[in-house]
Amino acid sequence: MDSFNERSDVPIIAFFGTKGGVGKTTITSRFAEFVSYSVNSPNILMIDFDVDHRGLTVLLSRGRGFSCKTIHEYVKDNISSLDSAIDVTEEKKLNTGGKLYLIPSAHADSKLTFRVTADLDYNVLVNTIIELIKEAVSRYNIGCVVIDCGPVINPYTAAAAHIADHAFIIGQNEPISYEALANYSYKIREFFEGFNSSKMAVILNKVRGSVREGHGIFTVIPFTLEVVDISEGLENIDRIRLVLFESYIHDIVSKLFHKTYPPLVPDQSVVLDDELKHLSHNFSQFSRFFRFFRIKKLLVLMFSFILIGAIIAKNLYVRNNVSTLKQESVFPLIPANVFNIFIGIGIIGLIISIIMLALSWSMNKDLNKIKQNGAKHIVEMLHTAKGREMLWRIRKWMERLKKTNS
Questions:
Q1: Same domain for 256 and 337?
Q2: For residue 282, what is the DSSP state?
Q3: What end-to-end distance do the CA atoms of the chain give, in Å?
Q4: The CATH number of the domain where 242 resides is what?
């Protein structure tokens, strides 16, 4: 049986879960949304193959109900001609990019889902799915297909893995996730003997501690509640955790497509909230900070010259008074303690200006990196406690500038 990918250049990505609550549906929906933000604003088709739990359908339809046919109905009635898909673009967090379309799994009151699943002809199922996808790609100008599957290998999930370019198992850092990678391939081959297991990989979510190497791990998403601890005292900590989590979803898109489908990789700024995006896009407001930073460097130089000059002058004064008569001194009218005063001013001024410069040095370094790399460096800063603290300081600076300008 030929896969859809041999007939189209539209990638198909399938997501599975090892169990409920691992974040599969959230990762699936965010993945699809971020791809829609890429350079050509592609439209994305999402298909919910989890006819039992209906996670993606419930998430995106928001209980509003829908009139289009479901995957369960297409398969039950052996219909390969697409009725329509639900436009769920309004569920996106940004008003940019392409549209999101959904073919739902089943209605909440659908009957005989288990019996229909058990009686399916696998090759007929694959042909039905391929024809539906082909028609949707043509009708809605789809640039990528994302399939959300249940945690159990049944004809639906096996067919999704069979036609997909890549199939990801979402799990946590526990034995069941690693075992699933091996077991799923064997179970899928019970339906499709020629299944290529190399397309499968594991994405570990909500990870605490270290991770076992190997085992086909595609990427690791840390447990952000622990990464960004409340003890850091940051404001809007939940928003920071969300941005950090979504940065890992962006990394999945980038790692997956940067070689094969580079136009489908969005800019990293899509993960930023409005405040951080403002920092990235409106960098001119920090020109005053850079001026102050240059002034601090000049103060260090100025007090250094004062200190060095006063020390040299005092040495000359002392030498002159030792070698000549006092009335013939080069500095006959300058009291000796004046040099000590200037030395004191130089020392105190130098210490204060060095402290001021040091306090601004790391912020200046990060601001320059933000100036050069924009959102990329902001996301890098979010990955460390020191970076998050610096972003908090930068945000406070922004607030002071706003108050000053108003």
A1: no
A2: -
A3: 67
A4: 3.40.50.300
